[in-house]
Amino acid sequence: MKKVVIVFGTRPEAIKMAPVVKTFRSDPRFETVVCVSGQHRSMLDQVLSAFDIVPDIDLKVMRPGQTLTDVTVNVLQGVSDVLSAAKPDMVLVHGDTTTAMAAATAAFYQQVPVGHVEAGLRTHNMWQPWPEEMNRCVIDLFARWLFAPTETARTALLAERIPEERIVVTGNTVIDALLIASERIRTDPAVKRLCKDQFPFLQPDKRLVLVTAHRRENFGGGLRGIYEALARLARRGDVQIVYPVHLNENVRRAASEILSGVEGVFLIEPLEYLPFVYLMNRSHIIVTDSGGIQEEAPALGKPVLVTREVTERPEAVAANAARLVGTDTARIVAETELLLDSPDEYRKVSCAESPYGDGRAAQRIVETLANF
Ligand code: UD1
Ligand code: UDP
């Protein structure tokens, strides 16, 4: 039996690792230890309960207003202690958060091989996204297994001279998670009703624009640009703008300053995963700077406008399922109105092919490690 420690700590890692945890835990070839850093608290717990995952270890590192240094130091020390006690054969981390980088580093220091889920995403700009571009580059430097979600990611890794035999293209595990959630909403009327009942304010005759925004490099002017655009779009009167506001105080302050009380804009608390998937399905357009949502929207046939200057997920842009619109107010308004007012444009984007996987990424990861 191989012993694997799986570490994650934020909402998106939890969503994307949930199918991986489930697959490992149901496989008798592995002893699986789930260690959450608790870099996020309530947003992480929402996902753990949605997927019925009880972690074996919780490092509880989150502090209000935490710095990158706080998170790095606490996760590095906490995971280091866990690995000393557990002595695993391998450690799995996900993506580009500070939890992932610090946990992988702790494993590297103890010479425990690391598997990196969602390897090879790159903008080639260390400041966008910051600090995530650094985090993922560091993990990929020494990971023993690089689970690249797409061929594009694999090509990026090969260009960095990472040995080919370490890379496996799996698809993105977010599609596994999305399919699990969609199936539960589709097949369980009680779940569907619970989701629907959370949004009594939605009007069938108005199109829903779903928004999220939280990137550190957008704090300040970037967020302001996005929020001014939402306020202008709301004035049209034929849309409802729903924005579950991330719990980061920098985001909340700016959102309430510019958007609270604006008619047609609904600022709500972060949603559990199932109601959020329900809302994505119910939406007409999604405006976001989120990584995960850039991958989910094309799989649901929803046009996604990405409020960033660059993206490490160029596949959706190339497939015309996503448009990179930056944070300039006029540009966001113009691109959103184009989709609202031109049925032809809308059709082109919503019919684009989804490039991020088939829902079997977790199985491929487990098989690779079982056969190693
Ligand atoms: C983190 C990740 C980012 C990821 C994002 C997903 C890093 C450097 N950043 O950014 O890559 O895209 O999560 O959402 O790893 N907070 C709460 N409760 C929560 C979560 C956050 O109160 O459940 C507040 C706390 O005040 C916390 C702050 O948000 O200190 C910032 O959280 P942090 O994880 O450091 O940064 P994010 O911006 O969430
Ligand atoms: N999400 C959620 N509830 C919300 C907003 C987002 O469950 O209120 C999900 C979303 O479907 C996606 C993930 O959270 O799977 C994205 O997380 P986030 O945007 O925080 O981080 P990123 O993907 O940018 O790292």
Notes on the structure:
- The structure is a single chain.
- The protein folds into 2 domains: 185 residues, Rossmann fold (3-Layer(aba) Sandwich); 162 residues, Rossmann fold (3-Layer(aba) Sandwich), CATH 3.40.50.
- It has a 7-stranded parallel beta sheet with strand order 3-2-1-4-5-6-7, with helices on both faces. It has a 6-stranded parallel beta sheet with strand order 10-9-8-11-12-13, with helices on both faces.
- It is α/β, with parallel strands linked by helices.
- The radius of gyration is 20 Å and the shape is globular.
- The structure holds uridine-diphosphate-N-acetylglucosamine and uridine-5'-diphosphate (UDP).
- The site of uridine-diphosphate-N-acetylglucosamine has 25 residues, from helix 1, helix 2 and helix 3.
Characterize this entry briefly.
The chain has two domains: 2-172 and 357-370, Rossmann fold; 189-350, Glycogen Phosphorylase B (Rossmann fold). The chain has 16 helices and 13 strands.
Set down the secondary structure blueprint.
Elements: E1 2-8, H1 11-25, E2 30-36, H2 42-50, E3 57-58, H3 68-86, E4 90-94, H4 98-109, E5 114-117, H5 132-142, E6 145-148, H6 151-159, E7 167-169, H7 173-187, H8 189-197, E8 207-212, H9 221-234, E9 239-244, H10 249-259, E10 265-268, H11 273-282, E11 285-288, H12 291-299, E12 304-306, H13 314-318, E13 322-324, H14 329-341, H15 343-350, H16 361-370
Parallel strand pairs: 1-2, 1-4, 2-3, 4-5, 5-6, 6-7, 8-9, 8-11, 9-10, 11-12, 12-13
Helix pairs in contact: 1-2, 1-7, 1-16, 3-4, 4-5, 7-8, 7-11, 8-11, 9-10, 9-14, 14-15
The chain binds uridine-diphosphate-N-acetylglucosamine and uridine-5'-diphosphate.
Residues 11-12, 15, 174, 212, 214, 244, 270-271, 273, 276, 290-293, 296 line the site of uridine-5'-diphosphate.
